[in-house]
Amino acid sequence: MEQNKLSKRIVDLRESMDLTQTELARRLKIDKSAMNKIENGTRKVSSEELDKLSNIFDVTTDYLLGKNGTPKWANKQDVFDLKKFLEDNDGSFTFGGDDLTEDEKEKLKIAMTQIFWDRHKHN
Q1: Alpha-carbon distance 85 to 60, whole Å?
Q2: What is the 8-class DSSP label of residue 101?
Q3: Which of 57, 61, 65, 92 minimizes the number of CB atoms within 10 Å of its CB?
Q4: How crowded is residue 43: how many other Cβ atoms within 10 Å of its Cβ?
C-alpha cells in the first residue's frame, strides 16, 4: 500500500477514536514529531509500530495495509469481527500434521478474509 494511503487510514482511525496525535504517539511510545511524520507520509511505519496500531485500533494489520480487500460497506465493527475471526483461527491449521510456513499462513489469511467478507455480505 502506498505510504500516504496508510497514513490516511491511520489519521481516519485516530480521529474516529477521538485521539490526539500526542495521545497516539504516547501509546506507540514515539515522540509527537515522529507521529506527525507518519501521518504526513514522510516517515515509514515499522512492523512493530504497525502491530501496535493494529491493537490500538482493533483492526488487522492487513486492514491498515489495505491487503484484505475490505469492502466499502464494512464498518469498524465488521473489521473488528474480522480480526477476531482470524485470531481465533490462527495456528489451528496444519498440512499433513506439519505446521504451515509463514507464506502459507499469509495465503490462508487472505482466503479466510475473502470468505469472511462473502459470508458477511450475505448475512
Answers
A1: 10
A2: P
A3: 92
A4: 17
Taking only the tens place, the pLDDT of each residue in 64-113 is: 887 766 777 788 888 888 888 888 877 777 888 888 887 788 778 878 88
**Whether 9 contacts 66, CB under 8 Å:** yes
Alpha-carbon gap, residue 14 to 21, rounded angstroms: 8
Residues 63/82, Cβ–Cβ less than 8 Å: yes
Q: Cell 512493530 maps to which residue?
A: 48
pTM: 0.59
Report the greatest alpha carbon distance in the chain.
50
DSSP SS3 for 95: strand
Q: Which residues pair with 98 in a beta bridge?
A: 95
Rounded distance between C-alpha atoms, residue 63 and residue 72, angstroms: 12
Q: How far apart are CA 10 and CA 68, in angstroms?
A: 16
